[in-house]
Amino acid sequence: MENIKQTESRVAVISVIVENPDAVAQINDILHSASDCIIGRMGIPYRQKNISIISVVIDAELNVISAVSGRLGRLDGVTVKTAYSKK
Predict the structure, then answer these.
(1) What pLDDT, on the 0 to 100 scale, is given for residue 6?
(2) What CA–CA distance (Å, rounded) separates 80 from 87?
(3) In whole angstroms, what is the distance from residue 12 CA to residue 87 CA?
(4) Looking at the chain, which terminus has fewer C-beta neighbours within 10 angstroms, N or C?
(5) Quick one: pLDDT at residue 43?
(6) What is the reported pLDDT for 3?
(7) How far apart are CA 14 and CA 28, in angstroms?
């Protein structure tokens, strides 16, 4: 029998700054597509600056985390940074 190496998951925090309120529906769609991997999510509206900050904690394979981060980062008026755990 051949050994099949499974890819390990990692925990990451995806930080999202939303400067374009029109992008919110697309952000929700992207996050919904990865909902089975998302541990938690916190959104903070910062009305004084007219922006929103979203933190998403995800436990998934690296390619899934990168795909979610990349899709979010390509949205107009959205800035994304991701921090990965070492485990």
Answers:
(1) 53
(2) 22
(3) 10
(4) N
(5) 97
(6) 43
(7) 14
Q: For residue 40, which phi and psi values (nearest 5 degrees)? A: -165, 165
Closest CA to 38 of 75, 12, 8: 12
Residue 20 CA from chain centroid, whole number: 17
What's residue 7's pLDDT? Answer: 72
What are the structure tokens assigned to 2, written together? 């051949």
Question: Computed from CA positions of residues 11, 26, 43, 70, in that sequence, does the dihedral angle turn out positive or negative?
Answer: positive
Q: Walk along the chain (87 residues) in steps of 10 and give the mean pLDDT of each run.
A: 61 98 97 97 97 98 97 98 93
Whose CA is closest to 29, among 72, 79, 77? 72
- Specify the 3-state DSSP secondary structure of 33: helix
> Residue 37, Cβ neighbours under 10 Å: how many?
18
